[in-house]
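Now for a specimen:

…
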Amino acid sequence: MGRRAGIVHRQRAERTRAVRPLKIVVTGPFAAGKTTLIQTISEVAIVGTERNVTDDSLDIKQRTTVAMDFGRLSFAEDLSLFLFGTPGQRRFEVMWEILSEGMIGFIVLVNAADDRSTQEAAAILATFREYADVPYVVGVTHLDETDLSPDEVFSQVRGMLEVPEHVLVQACDARAKGDVKDLMLKILMEVMERLERAEAAAI
């Protein structure tokens, strides 16, 4: 290896080592928008495991995630979010715990146009809170498909999921990059605030 090639190789290695990958999990019920959200924001082609739906959910959508979706988002030269989307159906629950390992926070998506979605989201949220005590936010999708006002929907979701007042519940169009990026920033802010409180308490 020539001197110039060696320098370039070392510079690339240093940049690679400097990047801090942070793991965020995107979870929620079937058809809440998890795969779409990751597709919308990921800088790389997502690694997905969608398969055709074979049960009575076929009337809602034709394909579902059976293992995980994976995407990546960079916020700075040294900060990358690794995004892992979970399957929404409980029969794939074994993947929930696997994907939760090492997460610094998670996002729960709820489909405002599907009454079952909120009930299922409540059970999923309770499960993930048992996996790890990490910050989370709730994103409400499909608001354009319901006759209720956003405030009414948020109130219902907060009540059904038993979400504390300090936890964010907000609208998120999984197809809109701005909405998704805002949700990512919010979960990162929650993580940073948690770390700052922990550091202050340790002094």
